[in-house]
Amino acid sequence: MLDFILGWFSNDLAIDLGTANTLVSVKGKGIVINEPSVVAIKTEGNRKKILAVGKRAKEMVGKTPRDIMAIRPMKNGVIADFNVTEEMIRYFIRRAHNRRGLIRPRIVICVPYGLTQVERKAVKESALSAGAREVYLIEEPMAAAIGAGLPIKEPQGSMVIDIGGGTTEIGVISLGGLVTSKSIRVAGDKFDRAIVDYINKKYNLIIGDRVAEEVKIKIGSAVKLDEELKMQIQGKNKISGLLETIEVTTEDVREAIKEPVKEIGEALKEVLEQTPADLAGDIVENGIVLTGGGALLRGLDRYLSNEVYLPVYIAEEPMLAVAKGTGKVLEELDLLASLQDE
Q1: What is the pLDDT of residues 112-124, one digit of tens each?
Q2: How far is CA 71 from CA 60, 164, 195, 283, 299, in A?
Q3: Which domains are seen in the chain, by residue range?
């Protein structure tokens, strides 16, 4: 009876709990929150106080005094800090419901394919501790396919590659289930780290992940462009210790990220090799859909297409595909029942 009464005071939520960004959808309203998965914490003796979550916290990354840390509690799609993740989820629940009291929503959370039972339990318990009434899990490749509008319930093969911040999820879906899937911990963060290391090695310049991410977005490419791009960046010379400005090019970025890009291509080939022949025929005919923030890297669709000799298409609003798919599951109770994690 109590659960029934509390249900009147709750709006169900869908959460794409990403390594880089968290997106929250409210049933009947769509996506209402899209913020970085970052929490700023101040240490006061033995106590830790949450100062900021999301955009405000990300602005503090690399710029905080010693007693303040701006951290990402999710690493590679897995909870790295249970308590901070719980606080982050609680914050987003309150934000989604305009801080109303008696909030006990049912929550659908998207998780990477292949999480262990221990990792799945940690995600569920974190959301329950943050105030959820019930928690269901859906795997990222399925959510991405639903969000990209693929016919997942049909007796035909649909293939999706979702490249997020911490993981790349690849899946072949037919008749509402994942036939073959693979999750690798190579994605946007690995690109950023590779750029940091490359700039350090080639130019003796120390830069942070934020600058590397900006370089990736503004001039990054997986293939050679007709017109190469360039930009100026600032950092600290590791030999002199002085601040320095240099110019980097698309060729620099392409060279920096070639290994992680290659790893994604190899993972794609593995999934295709494991795909049943009849479904493979459907993929040859319909192509592969690319979702996630990584889909926005210039030429990545062309690179992957050249690797597997198949058409690769970028989904409409690729960064929102997983969140849209998770939200759609929340809207359709029969779909939720068929896909929920046991």
Answers
A1: 888 889 988 988 9
A2: 10, 18, 20, 40, 31
A3: 2-36+87-140+322-339 (3.30.420.40), 143-185+261-318 (3.30.420.40), 188-256 (3.90.640.10)
